[in-house]
Recover the amino acids of this structure.
């Protein structure tokens, strides 16, 4: 599963990525990190930092059993949701950091979910994608549009070589989002994690910067 913004049913409800490699590789992710100019506008959703006054919405998202079904977390209490909300970042300074932002439907102002990227390794130029969305906003393309914006940031803003996403292999809705974005399914690990009192299979998806650029010229990223 993948980072702070997991890739659940329509989230790549994922869990924090593993240890980050130290050092720097020429041409790799920018050592200056990433501080996007918000809001980030896509065709329909708007990506913006989570605010403390979003607590009710954030709590509803992370307490919903359907949303967290394939995440590492159990449904969060309000206190835990408040603590997690306060811990979220909207910029990346160093390997190990994650950006998590709210995905707002421009036409209504409703928050549809959360999307994020994590700088996993500077040496290996690796970034990871994660997302979670309310059931009511799934199947409408919001996860795909918002994730595409973050993938573009990872490649153009951080200079990543490869982007990955990890998810519970049963999470077919999340897998479809990744496949629409052009990710390939690179691996299936059988019963490799003990999550919520059961052994779970994990699917790993990936895409290279060169592959993304073929279908998403810089002006589209």
């Amino acid at each position: 599963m993948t980072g702070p913004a997991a890739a659940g049913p329509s989230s790549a409800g994922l869990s924090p990525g593993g240890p980050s490699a130290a050092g720097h590789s020429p041409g790799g992710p920018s050592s200056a990190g990433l501080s996007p100019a918000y809001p980030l506008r896509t065709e329909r959703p708007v990506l913006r930092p989570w605010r403390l006054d979003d607590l009710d919405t954030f709590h509803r998202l992370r307490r919903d059993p359907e949303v967290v079904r394939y995440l590492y977390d159990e449904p969060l209490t309000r206190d835990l949701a408040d603590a997690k909300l306060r811990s979220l970042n909207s910029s990346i300074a160093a390997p190990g950091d994650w950006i998590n932002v709210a995905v707002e439907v421009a036409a209504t102002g409703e928050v549809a979910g959360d999307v994020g990227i994590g700088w996993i390794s500077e040496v290996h130029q690796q970034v990871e994608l994660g997302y979670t969305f309310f059931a009511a906003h799934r199947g409408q393309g919001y996860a795909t549009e918002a994730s595409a914006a973050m993938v573009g940031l990872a490649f153009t803003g951080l200079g990543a070589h490869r982007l990955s996403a990890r998810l519970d292999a049963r999470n077919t809705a999340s897998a479809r989002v990744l496949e629409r974005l052009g990710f390939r399914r690179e691996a299936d690990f059988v019963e490799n994690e003990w999550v919520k009192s059961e052994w779970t299979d994990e699917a790993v998806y990936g895409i290279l910067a060169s592959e993304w650029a073929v279908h998403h010229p810089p002006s589209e990223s």
Observations:
- The first strand starts at residue 40 and ends at 41.
- The radius of gyration is 16 Å.
